Structure formats: C-alpha cells, structure tokens
Fold:
Amino acid sequence: MFVVHALHSPTRGVLLWAEDGERTPRTDRRSLRTARPNPFAVPSDELAAIHPGKPASVTVLLPSHPSGPQDSPGLVRSRPRTRSRGTPTLAPWTVPAVVVDPSELTDPSDEVRYGAGFAHLADLARLAEELAARGRVLPVLLTESGRPAARWRPVVQGLDAVARADLVRRLPPVARAEQRRPGDVAGQDPDTLVDAALARFTDAAVRERLGRSAAMPVPLPARADAPASLLHALTGPSADLPATGAGLRVLREALAVWDDVGREQPGAATALFRLAEVSTLHDPADPGPDLDDQTGDGTRWELQFALRSTEDPSLVFDAAGVWAGEADALVSGAQDVLLAELGRAAQVLPGLVPALRRARPTGLELDVTGAHRFLTRDAPALLSAGFGVALPRGWDGRRPLGLRLSASSAPAPGVITRGGLGRDELAEFRWSLAVGDEELGESEIAALVAAKAPLVRLRGRWVAVDAQALAQGLDFLRRHRDRPPTVGEVLAAARGEAGAPLPVTDVSARGHLGALLEGTAEATLTPVPSPPGFTATLRPYQERGVAWLAFLSSLGLGACLADDMGLGKTVQLLALEAHDRSGGPTGAPTLIVCPMSMVGTWQREAATPGTCGRGGSTGSSSTRPR
Structure:
C-alpha cells in the first residue's frame, strides 16, 4: 500500500508524492549533498490514477542514511529492510509528484495511507473554507510574474488567529520538506508556508463559492475600465488584472484602506471586556431550582474594561488600575494602549461610544436586554476581532432552552411478532420544556412566561429566552400532549429534525425503541429459526437477518437487507412472512413488490406454501416497506 504525502509549494500549489513499500529501499552510495532519485517513490502516473493532477517533480529533504532515505512511519514492507546503525541526516531526494487541486485534500482514497502532511493541509483547507463562508476575506492587488493580479486574502483575527497559530505549531516536518535551493537543509519556514497556503486556499474557496452562487451575475468580459476589470479578476477563473496606468493606480488607492485590516501587529496589551453581575437580590452561587429573581430585574449588569498583557496573558489590569498607574511598570504606555484598544473596539461595537466620552472610562452599565445582546451577539464579534472576553460564571450558551422527549416501547425480550408495537403506538411518551437535558418544573415554566425578559436565571444559570419561540414551544406542548409521536417522529427528533419551534435538546427512550437509538438492539435479538410452514432451512446469518427484519417491523419501520447477491435475501423475506403469520391471524395480506419471475420460483420451491398470489411489479425483493 502506498503512503501519500502532501506539501504546499509556494510557486506551484499543492503537491502530492508517495512511497511504495514494495520498491527497493537502497540506492547507489554517493554523496548525500546532491539530490538523488528516491528509490521507492511512486511514479507520477500511478499516483495520478488515485489523485488526478499534473505530473511534476520536487526535491524534498528526508532523514537519510548513505544507502537511502528512511521509510516514513506509515510505510509497510513485505520484507523488512535492514536497519542502519548510523545517525540519520537530512539529505535531498527527488520524487515524482502531481500538482493537484486543493479539493483533493478533502477526498482521500481508501486504497492508500496518508502521511501527516496530507491531514495538516486538509485542516488548512478547512480553515480557508470557513473564512470564506463567514466572509472573513478582503480583495488585494498583487504582482504575479510581473503582471498585476487581484485575489482574495484571508482576514485572520481573534479565534481564527489562534487556529492559524496552532496550524503553524503543528506543521509536520514532511509538509515543509521542499528544498528551497541547492544546498539548503532547513526547508520551508513554517509561518511563511502556512500563510502562503492559507492565502491560496482562501482565494480558491471564495472563487468556488462565487461560482456556484445563485446571486452571482454571469461572468463579465475583461474590460479596460478599472471597476469592471477588478470584478472580473476577483470572480473569474483567472486573477489577471488587465488594468494599467491610471486605472491601476485608482484601484490601488481604493483598496489601500483595507491593507492593514487583519495585519495589525499585536501591541503590548489588548483590551479585555468582562460582563459582571454587580448587585443582585439573591445569592448567585445558589444552585436551587426556586429562585426569587428569575426575571433578572434585581441584577445590575456592567461591562467592565480591562487590559491584558500579550506577552503574559495571566497579567490582567482592570481599567481603574490602569488609570491609577498600576500597569505602567509592566505595560509600556498602558493608559494610551487602553484608550487605543477601546477606540478600536468601538469600531466593532458602536454601543461602547458613550462610555468613551468620559476622560477615564472604566466600564459601561447595561440593562438585562443589553446583557443579553452582549452574551449572544457582541461577545462573539469582539472575539473575532481579537479582543478578550470574560463572561459570567453562570452563563452557558451551550445549554439552550428547548424541548425534551421521553418515550418507551413495550419491552419484550427476544423476537417480536407483528402483534408488538405498531407504527403509530408508543407505550408511554411525554414532551417537556428543558434547559439542556434538565427538565423544567411547572413553576419554572410559569416564571419564564411571566418574566418577559430575554435573559433569566434558572437553577443558578443564566439562560437566553426568545419570548416568541417560548410561546410557540408552549403551544407545541399543548397540541402534542395527547398525540403520541410515531416511531419515525421519535427517530427524527433524535436527529434534530422534529420540526418544533424550539430545539429538541434531549431524546430518551426505553424498551426496543431505546435499544434502537443506542445501537444495542442487534445484540439483544434472538436469531429466528425456520418458522412453522417454512420448508427451507435458514443459515445462521439468515436467522439473524430475519430477527432484525422482525424487530424493525415491530417498530413500524421498513428495512433493506444489504447481503450480497446469492446470500438469500428472498429467503429471509419469505421466512419473515411465515414467522409473522405463525403468530396468529394477520388481517390484510402483505404486498410484496418483486419481479414476477420470483413468484414462480417461490411457487415451484414451495418454501412458503400459500403465500404467493398474483400481481405485476418490478423492483427488488430485498426491501420491505411497511
């Protein structure tokens, strides 16, 4: 099996090359300073059969001995190679490669193994796609091969900057192994390589999204006037910009205002915004379910300003301390830095402007609506812009107000017959209102309705409440109180597809339905032997198949047998029919959709005498819709 490696070449893009464990690992003993062909590299045409691309060659630096390069960790050989005793050194090797589209990184093949560089580049491509999807991009003018070009560049700030730094830290050596020039043994610089790859992937991701957008106009012809030529270069397959002279200068001046966005060098400190409960009528640490102030009216909120050192993030100075000079010894020009940071933050959140009108701003008072807005909208915006945010300990945005469904089917060990749970039957069911997976009591629901506030405290935690969605959720509970959900609706709710006005945060089930949701049903089923009236003999795997079909049938669910051709799907279906009929009268007959030639076969073999009637059909006997 091949081991496929990936790297980003600054001049060519994504390159794939591979090793083959069946090829000889040795080469002629020559100087390690001159690049030699890797003896067990896969030819480009063989690799292109797995990942289509343009044939190429690349020189990579690999740990080596005089007899040849070391095997990569994932390479498996049928004949283990002799282990060298000396210490390996980095040496250049030429390998056949293919230049591929970045989309190949997200479409791995099951026929090969992949090195760490492939997974790393795939992570880079995913970050670029996320940036494009969130619109974290800006146009930029470049010079490529001596000609002007227009591309999309990523705007990396806040949490995206953290993700980018993590990718630099995790860059595998094989991913930066391309030799920059003869004699080089250092490889590519990690920061430069990650930034170049992210820029290339982001530009491709934006163009791909624009190309399939329904709102995108038809491709524009390349024209000499500046705006049209820029739009053509940013949306078309080519980044070449036909503008020259005065037109090019106009474009450069127009885009210059964005040049520094996302490229700001971190200063000595950055602003930190802390949302705090300043005073309250109850104990915020009280975890009890019955709280006096569920509406939040007794809580005064304040958005407090602070300064956090970029060199040592554990050093945090509140704004009052900064104005008192407490940060001057550790942060140069701390007061000026704080004012500059607050001004920069006001561009993200204009609501901060009133606080900045004071000579020495320390914070901003908020009502419950403002606190809700900060928790749900403003805080993520500040994080994306690179600022620090500290939220109340009682806030957990991952536990939304939602619906909870508990259901159970009648437990019956072993095999279930058609007389079991029907498609429209559940032994017990109940919808309820919940925070996360914790069900709320009647008094808590009444307090929610009475609060009429977007932020309420429940069980010691602050919860965001949409009044309209809450009213619709309560109406949903009233309408579904006496109407049992079908098994299919329970399964849909477990997948988050209940069609309810509030999210379904938890689905719990007992009995056979619970076993199905937990994935343990198959282990609890008893194989079905040949039932009465069935003249054929079932093999062990067929007995298990019939048990599975009977189990799903009891839940009112259809089934599809995935057995290969010739393994007896028809036999199992007929056995299920005989098994169901052996439990007593079944009422209406079962419609089986299959080729008429199969009916004649069943009648001749008489596996289930009296089962087959007449009818016309097409299709497969492996499915059984209920």
User: Anything to note?
Assistant: Confidence is low (pLDDT under 50) at residues 218-224, 281-296, 411-425, 613-626. The CA atoms of residues 272 and 388 lie 4 Å apart.
